[in-house]
Design goal:
With 250 residues, this protein is of the alpha/beta class. It has one domain: Rossmann fold. The protein contains ten helices and eight strands. The chain has an eight-stranded mixed beta sheet, sandwiched between helices. The longest helix has 27 residues. It starts with 5 loop residues before the first strand and ends with a strand. The relative contact order is 0.15. The structure holds NADP nicotinamide-adenine-dinucleotide phosphate.
């Protein structure tokens, strides 16, 4: 991807998204720092530097998504890289280790509205943002879409040998990431003919608000694989699903 490329990272005001935006901006790309709270996005963009521009973007709010697409269209006329990073893992502010938190998030017992809220951001939000940005992605030479998924979304790993911990923590978040994997494949199939590649990426277990800062990787490290896939030249084959450990099975 050339360093003149235009990128949008959703949920880039903190956590892994912030560091993806920072790593792309450091390569010279122009990066839109998506943030549902504009002031947080502006603070993040200021920290990153001149290549970063804050943009208000709530992935569950169609008017916000449409306004963001209109602005990028007006300012640049195209978008080279879309990184669907915004995500949530829990409802409210449950404390304690992930193994405890997931007890209130199992598929057979979690309140349906909690599961819907998780899917609204992690799945429907990605579809809505991607559909709105597609006309701009089509205006780019060889655009790519990176969906920040998770290894916990792999059913093969969950049900396979060594998957005890994944089975223990399988709840609405894991299920939403599996749905995200499915829509990644759907997008890749639909866009293949147009030369737009679509990728799922697992950042690894990273210390962020998403897991009450219990992750083991630093945020800079967690951003590495999404940024690598976004910048890869030539692009990875479409419908890739990778982490720094290599390719994951769906
Ligand atoms: P984080 O620090 O909590 O960041 C999540 C980001 O998403 C925040 O900027 C948050 O905005 C934003 N967001 C949430 N709902 C949104 C909405 N409706 N519209 C726009 N932005 C929204 O967590 P993170 O760990 O960096 O998560 C980034 C991605 O990595 C997620 O997709 C997550 O599932 C994935 N992931 C993380 C890990 C890990 O171990 N941390 C592992 C695998 C995958 P606010 O600041 O306004 O809340």
């Amino acid at each position: 991807m050339p360093n003149t490329a235009i990128a949008l990272v959703t949920g880039a005001n903190q956590g892994i998204g912030f560091h993806i935006a920072q790593q792309l901006a450091a390569k010279g790309l122009t990066v839109f720092v998506g943030s549902r709270n504009l002031a947080n996005g502006e603070a993040a963009a200021k920290d990153i530097g001149a290549n970063a521009h804050a943009i208000q973007l709530d992935v569950t709010d169609q008017a916000s998504i449409d306004a963001a697409a209109a602005r990028i269209g007006k300012e640049f006329g195209h978008l080279d890289i879309l990184i669907n990073n915004a995500g949530i893992s829990k409802i409210g502010n449950p404390q304690g280790p992930i193994e405890e938190i997931v007890k209130g998030a199992r598929i057979t017992t979690a309140p349906l509205d909690h599961i819907r809220t998780i899917y609204d951001t992690n799945v429907f939000g990605v579809i809505a943002v991607t559909q709105a940005m597609l006309p701009l992605l089509r205006e780019a030479k060889a655009a790519r879409i990176v969906n920040v998924s998770s290894g916990v979304g792999s059913l093969t790993r969950t049900l396979g040998e060594g998957g005890e911990h994944l089975r223990q923590i399988f709840g609405m978040y894991s299920a939403s990431k599996n749905a995200l994997n499915a829509i990644t494949v759907g997008m890749a199939l639909d866009l293949q003919k147009e030369g737009i590649t679509v990728h799922a990426v697992c950042p690894g277990y990273t210390k962020t608000a998403l897991n009450n800062f219990q992750g083991t990787k630093a945020v800079e490290e967690g951003a590495r694989e999404p940024a690598r896939v976004a910048l890869a030249n030539p692009p990875l084959p479409t419908a890739s699903y990778t982490s720094t450990e290599g390719t994951f099975p769906w």
